[in-house]
Amino acid sequence: MTPFLVRRFASATLTIWAVFTLSFFIIRSAPGGPFDLEREPAPDIKAAIEARYDLDLPLWKQYVQQGWLWLTLDPGPSLRQPDHDVATILSQGFPVSVLLGGWALVTGILAGLALGILSAWRPGSWIDRSVVLFASLGISLPMYLIAGLLIMTFSFHWNLLPPAGWTSLASLVLPMTCLALAPAAQVARLTRSGLLETSSEDFARTAKAKGRSPLSILILHCLRPASIPVASTLGPTAAALLTGSLVVEQIFAIPGIGMHFVQGAMNRDYPLVLGVVLLYTVLLQVLTLIGDLLIMWLDPRGSDMR
Amino acid sequence: MIASLQPHKSRWRQTRKTLPVLSLAWLTLVVLISILTPALPLEPIDSVDPEQAISAPSIHHWFGTDVLGRDLFSRILRGSRISLACALAGAATALLVGVAWGLIAGGGSRQRDNVMMRFVDLVDSIPLVFLVILVASVVRGSVIEESGGGLGVFFVILGFVYWTPMARVVRGETISLANREWALAATALGSSPQRILRKEILPNLVPTILVTLTLIIPRVLLFEAFLSFLGLGVQSPHVSWGTLARDAFEVLNPVNTAWWLVLYPSLVLAMSLLALNIIGDALRSDLDPKDATK
Amino acid sequence: MRPVSARPTRALFAVTVLFCLVWGGYWALPTLPGRADLVIGNGTDPGSLHPHRATGVPEGRVIRALHEGLVLLDPKTQEPQPGCAHSWNVSDDGLIWTFYLQPGLQWSNGDPLDARDFRRSWLDLLDPSAGAPYGDLLESIQGAREWRQGKSLRDQVAITTPDPLTLRLKLVQPTPWLPFLCTQTPLQPVHPQALGKAGVGIPTNGPWTLERWDLRDRIRIIRSPHYRGPAKPALRTIDFLAVEAGNTLINLFASGAIDWAVSVPTTLLPLLKKDPLWRKAWRSDPYLGISFYRLNPTRPPLQHLEIRKALSLVLNREQLCRDILGGDPEPAWNFVPWPAPALERQNLKSQQPDQLTFLPGYSGSASTRQGIRDVDHISSEQWPLLGFDPDQARDLLAQAGWKTPSSPEGRPIPSFEILHSTGSTHSIVAQWLQSTWSRELGIETRIRSMEWRSFLQTQRDQDYDVSRSSWIADYPDPSTFLQLFTSTSNNNRTGWSDAEYDAEVAAALTAAASKERNKHWKNAEQILLERGPVLPLWSTTTTHLVAPEILGFRPHPLNQHDLRHLERRSP
């Protein structure tokens, strides 16, 4: 176990460093700077404020400086919101995004598992086909459009939920639903095919011969090995969730860090962008690791760790 | 298989095929229309008619008009062309880059595989949105762009976003296929690894590749819609289903929605993506020997 | 490798995940202590709440509630009114201003506030090493420009405090709009403890103080017990919500979560207006600014004057404003939104033509051709308005030998690129331009949209053919518009330069009498419209949605509504 973890830690570190370097140089190559305005001040005045943030140093020096600041976890103020440190901004927004994304992931997976089980229980029936169709609907329209339609239905047609904002538990429902649709669809599909596959194995037939009901066989015996593909997609699913959160946080006015992604790049807020990128990379690495650990746990026969 | 647990269900086999067939028919229709669109008598692409802005469907405008008075029906038809091009760009790049990468990684030494898949992990862990936004705003004035009216670069970007799933799948399948008896036999008989890859493994990968393609293409289209949401998608006067989706979103409001601007583009987009998913599912169950629904 | 041992690990794992989610939920969920008296959907999350660093409208709205300057504006007449200063005067030559402060003013932590705080704050604003974007507002003070160029010292700037309650300024050129400037955020005082930052706990001097700032969520301000100024507010707490998406603002307003939405997306304007309830909430007020396109005269085909004129003549601005922009903005054919027909028509009858000034009480809309003709002492022949005349445009081009739909034998006009920044309104207008130019003149154009900062960079590099622009006044005087296109202005960004124009602008800035100033401004604008690099489209308006329970909402020429005068009607 330990050598495995050590290896993973080393490769994660390498990935993080590579992402940091790539992101740094990409965003610095974009035209324009953080202090550009329609109403431009005189060039020397602008230079003064850029110098205050060390933006006048040669690029490689800034790279080293930024790298060091991040290593010591002290990245300094945001360029667009200089009243706040990047660390503060991220630590305020991150729990919100994790909460939303985490619950969306859990809900999506649970819903997907349930749908997949339902589907595999009566394969080919109208239940099966409608479940598959229903699950596919969630990935057949852009998320923002689904969000808009949900808002119109649940916030205005039936006055049930707030249309936006971050004021109460009810504010969570619609954004979470939007984010959970894609994972649910994917998990449903994978679970269904995985269950259909494992239910043809010997141990399933034995259980059937012993007189157990098909449903209990599915859940108790087939589900674990069938969930392996689900666990292996945990990383990419989480990545897709992060992208989806951009849209959701903007539409539902949720104070997460999703928008900092896009807005940070557009505002040339270099420290903030680097912070968000690093945070996401770390998160992805952690989630992929969790996914791999889950695979090991689920399949005691051991999997090909090549 | 579950059917073996419930031995007497056989009637569903006949109706199983209708959905995929319908989906195929719809997609064929979409492709045909997008090819034929330039020949159809539609209004010029950049004509606006502000007096007709946001008017409901009528004899003159079968699907109504948008905020600049443009006919929605023609915009949907035109949009299918660009969306089709996006889909093809995504498919082509995923195919070329992804399959090649996966084959080389899976068919080679463990070290080579490790390095190549690490690179894939790296690509996956870079927030691509961010990359695309920057590239979209940085690149300008290139030859591709001018000839495609700004769309050339756009398609290339889209293509590079989604090759990694293909690479992973192909790599996994290649490894598994390479370990089969007939592959090992071919090696024993003296065939070179490249020959084996090309002649034996690659043809066996075709079903998997097709299935993965039907998963990738919807994601390409949805990503294009996402870029339109951010304002970085297809630029006017060109129109795609993604821009129509964004226009649909912008028109949703609690007071008085122009329902036609929401319904028709959503319907067309949803049906096409659903069709792709259904075909993908059908292909997968047809081609997978272990699938239970046979 | 060994398989992970079963039951305890599994249970531990599940418990950990659940615990993280629940704990994260507890921490992350909002703890909102009741609804504020007024909730404003304020658009983008403010950048900085420091008066010297803020540049955007959303942050300005918050800062003006937290700070108070020397002067306030009367909400009805928009005339300058006492703020921290109870009176002021100016010498006859217009160069020496004296402000007399109210005694007994306090910061929100009880510290005393007097003229020395203003002097210190204004010098900090001018400080070249601070890089304050609006520092140039005070450059007409003697010594300021030299200090900012590094040629003199801080103490040589002519801001003095003969006694703690008097502030005296010596200017190098007349600045009649100085009282108005004193209402603006960069000239509001900053506490010495601020040290370049703003936030909860830093003392301010306005009617409210900052209670909380939840990033990207809301800012809450609460009435300050130490406020000793002239206008005590009725509202106790105010929330400013950060909402990025335009549709979300509308949704929040419709559900009652916010009382005031600061903007309405253009695409929704025609739809929302059809509903009578929404029309009641609608406030559309003139905003002292102009939306126009910059034309780059160094690029083909725009170096030809007749092409620039023709491009303007074929545009049916009335149709644009009425059908596409929802009917509120006014078409503009000249660059300075001046004179304002409604108010001007009343006042001008009693005034001499040469007394025509740019009235601070700007409550009308921008000049239309109709408005100009009504103002009978400015004859329309003198005014180089281009108006809407497609036939004349085609004639102009045909005479110069170009190919048009009506004269196909000429030289074809080269195609060019329309550049705009991302945004649905900009995109729609660009498409309208493209379509009109193609239909009326046969000119092919490409549209390119860029995200904001790339767009600004491109404009600065003058790497465009025509690009979308807008300019909002800093104060109500033509100089804020017409100084843009001098040769030395770094907001010119077109490469256009005209010595006669520069001379007229310079003469206007130094003229003491308003009659002479206006004459020079008018000359300068004529030159700009006759041969300059601008294509005016419409004069800007702001659209707000205000719930009927909120009373006291009045228009402000620069979209700087004073929250002091708002109250909530009790149900």
Task: Please name the defining characteristics of this protein.
heterotrimer, B: 294 residues, mainly alpha, MetI-like fold, 13 helices, 71% helix, elongated, C: alpha+beta, four-stranded antiparallel β-sheet, 18 helices
Helical percentage of chain B = over 70%
Under CATH at level 1, the class of chain B stands as Mainly Alpha
- Mean of the pLDDT scores of chain B? 76
Structural class of chain B: mainly alpha
Largest chain interface and its two residue counts? A-C, 69 and 73 residues
- What is the CATH fold-level name of chain B? MetI-like fold
Give the rounded overall mean pLDDT of chain C. 83
CATH superfamily of chain B: MetI-like
Largest sheet of chain C: 11 strands, mixed
What radius of gyration of chain B results from the CA coordinates? 23 Å
The rounded Rg of chain C comes to: 27 Å
The total beta strand count of chain C reads: 19
Structural class of chain C: alpha+beta
Provide the CATH architecture of chain B.
Orthogonal Bundle
As residue ranges, the low-confidence spans of chain B are 1-15, 140-149, 290-294
Strand content of chain B: under 5%
Instruction: Please report which band the strand proportion of chain C falls in: under 5%, 5-15%, 15-25%, 25-35%, 35-45% or over 45%.
Output: 15-25%
Low-confidence segments of chain C, ≥5 residues, pLDDT <50? 1-6, 339-384
State the distance separating the first and last CA atoms of chain B.
9 Å
End-to-end Cα distance of chain C: 72 Å
Explained architecture:
The complex is a heterotrimer of chains A (306), B (294) and C (571). In chain A, 74% of the residues lie in helices and 0% in strands. Chain A has 13 helices and no strands. The longest helix of chain A is centred in the middle third of the chain and has 36 residues, at 86-121. The two termini of chain A are 15 Å apart. Chain B is 71% helix and 0% strand. Chain C is α+β, with helices and mostly antiparallel strands and 571 residues long. Helices cover 30% and strands 18% of the residues of chain C. Chain C has helices at 7-28, 57-66, 115-126, 144-148, 178-181, 246-254, 269-272, 276-281, 305-313, 317-324, 341-348, 369-374, 390-399, 424-441, 452-460, 479-482, 499-510, 514-531, and strands at residues 38-41, 71-73, 80-82, 85-90, 96-101, 159-160, 166-170, 208-214, 218-223, 237-241, 260-261, 282-295, 330-331, 416-421, 445-450, 466-472, 534-546, 550-551, 567-568. In chain C, helix 9 (305-313) runs antiparallel to helix 13 and helix 17 (499-510) runs antiparallel to helix 18. In chain C, 50% of the residues are buried. Chains in contact: A-B, A-C, B-C. At the A-C interface, helix 2, helix 4, helix 6, helix 12 and helix 13 of A face helix 1, helix 6, helix 15 and strand 16 of C.
